[in-house]
Specification:
- This protein is an alpha/beta fold and about 210 residues long.
- It has a domain of about 140 residues: HUPs (Rossmann fold, 3-Layer(aba) Sandwich), CATH 3.40.50.620.
- The chain contains six helices and seven strands; from the N terminus they run βββαβααβαβααβ.
- The strands form two sheets. The protein has a five-stranded parallel β-sheet with strand order 5-4-3-6-7, sandwiched between helices. Strands 1-2 form a two-stranded antiparallel ribbon.
- Helix 4 packs across helix 6.
- The longest helix has 18 residues.
């Protein structure tokens, strides 16, 4: 037996040979009430009947992707946004995620509320001014504004939206940044789906 992800096939096996019972005199058919073929075995379908067939139809349409992209307004984030929009195309879905840092709890009210409101307002303005309308018209997208660590926010949205992949830009601040950790670096370690990182070199103008 061989198996594939979508189809199963079985190797042909030879028919078993059975001893035929003694027939009464004048009888030549061991099973007179059932049609038989030349091998002496009953036909699966009696003469005159039309067997039903199941036809497996394969769709030629490519699956529509769902992409989540992290966005903070920086040049690498803009490059990631353009790349993600191209990946989604006009048939897919794009979710643009911006995470803002929550103020420390020790501030207390009303300072905590003031900083929280200020950072939320900045995030809303950032998502409101996305360049997609100018660069890639026709892309279906939604925005997500979440307070908390950026990598965790992106992962949460990707899971909730059943995203096929995540796209982020790399800051490109050298080895120190990589050792301390970054959004892209953290995503590569904790994500449960493919992550595409757009390097800073990909958006630098040619000399």
């Amino acid at each position: 037996m061989c198996e594939s992800p979508t189809l199963r096939c079985c190797a042909h096996r030879p028919r078993a040979v059975f001893d035929q019972p003694d027939l009464p005199q004048g009888s030549s058919d061991p099973l007179p009430d059932r049609a038989t073929d030349n091998s002496g075995f009953p036909d699966r379908f009696p003469p005159g009947s039309t067997p039903s067939r199941s036809v497996l139809k394969m769709s030629s349409r490519e699956p529509t992707p769902t992409i989540v992209v992290g966005y903070d307004g920086s040049d690498p984030a803009r490059a990631a946004l353009v790349f993600a929009a191209q990946r989604a195309g006009t048939e897919g879905r794009l979710f643009v995620v911006h995470a803002y840092e929550l103020p420390p709890d020790f501030l207390g009210s009303p300072y905590y509320d003031h900083f929280l409101s200020d950072r939320r307002d900045r995030g809303e303005a950032l998502l409101r001014d996305l360049p997609l309308d100018d660069l890639l018209a026709g892309v279906e997208y939604e925005t997500e504004l979440i307070g908390g660590p950026a990598a965790e926010a992106i992962i949460d949205v990707a899971r909730a939206r059943h995203a096929d992949e995540i796209v982020v830009g790399a800051r490109g601040l050298g080895r120190v940044r990589a050792l301390l950790g970054s959004v892209s670096h953290e995503l590569l370690h904790i994500a449960d789906r493919p992550v595409i990182v757009i390097p800073a070199a990909a958006i630098r103008p040619e000399a």
